[in-house]
Amino acid sequence: MPAPLNRVATTPELPSTADVVVIGGGIVGVFAAYYLTRRGLKVALVEKGLIGAEQSSRNWGWCRQQNRDARELPMSTKSLDLWERFATETGEDTGFRRCGLFYLSNSDDELSGWARWRDFARSVGVTTHMLSSAEATERGRATGASWKGGVFSPTDGIADPASAAPAVARAILKLGGTVHQSCAARGIDIEGGRLSGVVTEHGTIRTKIAILAGGAWASSFCRQFGIRFPQASVRSSILSVSPGASGLPDALHTSAVSVTRRGDGGYTLAISGGGRVDLTPQQFRYAPQFLPMFVRRWRSLALGGLEGFRSGHETLARWRLDAPTPMERMRILDPKVDQRTIRLTHSRALELLPALRNTNVSAVWAGYVDSTPDGVPGIGEITTVPGFILAAGFSGHGFGIGPGAGHLIADIATGDTPIVDPRPYHPERFQRSAWGKVADF
Q1: Which end of the chain is more exposed for a tag (fewer CB within 10 A), N or C?
Q2: CB atoms within 10 A of CB 300
Q3: Alpha helices in 124-252 (DSSP H)
Q4: Whole-model pTM?
């Protein structure tokens, strides 16, 4: 029972040239391609599997400012406006709506942390409301429990992971861009010290600009060309239940479990921050850089198994451009579900929200969350390969900030004034230590 996903048409012929080639059809890649196509550029979007089939359809669907790291907050705020604007511009439905996000807690430490973030948010014009015990208990009455407090962020919202990336891909096609599924990008051509083309399994596209929005595959792709991008993936397992529960918040977070209404009226259930770290050659290679992250997150992470070896996305191997690559052998990352986590998540959700007992489990799935050492994405042109722009390592935040990230990438590619300050995201920062810089999220 994999994560639900809407399908989108594929352009039948691969172009020989393009102004820009976008590698990767997740939410960041499609929005980058969309904003570039809107600017009148000839854009080809290539995806080894299906549009949105990996983490972009396997997440909660939250589009939030609440509790964002200061470096990501400007992009989060811009993204909320862009989610709304996209529907107006295209008529396509991503399922986005500003329903507000609701947090409940009985932990004084957790509430104090949220209050500190509220004070910071005020300084940058973001509204979030701390709730008293009475207010939290009333707003959280579906739990049937009393709460010490909570947070409500009224301008935040959710979109539908099953439909968002495909909706953006359809908009690209309407604007004259091309979308190529089952078309793995094997590598890039470099001439005269700068990028000159993208080599795919179906032929080479000549271009001066390529954007790598490859998600969990980005580091191994970069390694083929001597580009060092530290990245580690965490395997996260979540589930959805059928419609049937009434009176529940659209989006609710507690330390025990988080619940999100889906487009079909059912709910996605997940444990925040939980996951398994599967051993891979890449994990060992970058382990020292991820030590600060592990020290911060060790309580929520567990050691995995050899699932990452099977998937092949974190290989240290070099591959040829004229032969099948690991990406063609694993078109869609669909890792093994951690059944223990699924059972724990479901039982916690039923305990928290009794109305969910009127539903049935409709799907279970796992996905790889691609992380950076500091938990903030790497976005920027690689200085050693002019014309090659990296956009990866979104650390579980990519879906919500996808529109803003896509817009920023388009700005970088075209030399336009960036929608947000690009400096906090540049990949060159990974040459320095992440101690003291791990994101609060």
Answers
A1: N
A2: 12
A3: 133-139, 164-174, 218-223
A4: 0.96
Q: What is the mean pLDDT of residues 160-167?
A: 97
- CA 357 → CA 106, 169, 274, 364, 398, distances in Å? 24, 37, 23, 17, 31
pLDDT given at position 1: 55
Q: Which two tokens stand for residue 100?
A: 């507000």
Instruction: Dump pLDDT digits (tens) for 250-301.
Output: 999 999 999 999 989 999 999 998 899 998 999 989 999 999 888 888 778 8
CA torsion, ordered 56, 59, 64, 70, to nearest 10 deg: -80
Question: What is the tens place of the pLDDT at every residue in 182-213?
Answer: 999 999 999 999 999 999 999 999 999 999 99
Q: How many other CB atoms sit within 10 Å of the CB of residue 317?
A: 11
Contact criterion met (CB below 8 Å) for 346 and 258: no
User: 339 falls in which pLDDT band (50, 70, 90)?
Assistant: very high
| pLDDT tens digits along 77-105 | 999 999 999 999 999 999 999 999 999 99
Q: Strand 251-253 to strand 258-261: parallel, antiparallel, or no bridges (unpaired)?
A: antiparallel
CB of 260 closer than 8 Å to CB of 268: yes
User: DSSP label at 342?
Assistant: H
Could you tell me which residues are beta bridge partners of residue 267? 241, 261
- Which residues lie below 8 Å from residue 263, measured CB to CB, with a gap of 6+? 95, 160, 162, 163
pLDDT at 250: 96
Give every strand in the sheet of 203-206, ordered side by side. 185-191, 194-200, 203-206
Type of residue found at 387: G
In whole angstroms, what is the distance from residue 154 CA to residue 129 CA? 8
Count Cβ atoms within 10 A of the Cβ of residue 305 and give its class: 0-12 exposed, 13-18 middle, 19 or more buried: middle
Nearest to 114 by CA among 133, 130, 99: 130
Structure tokens at 164: 């968002």
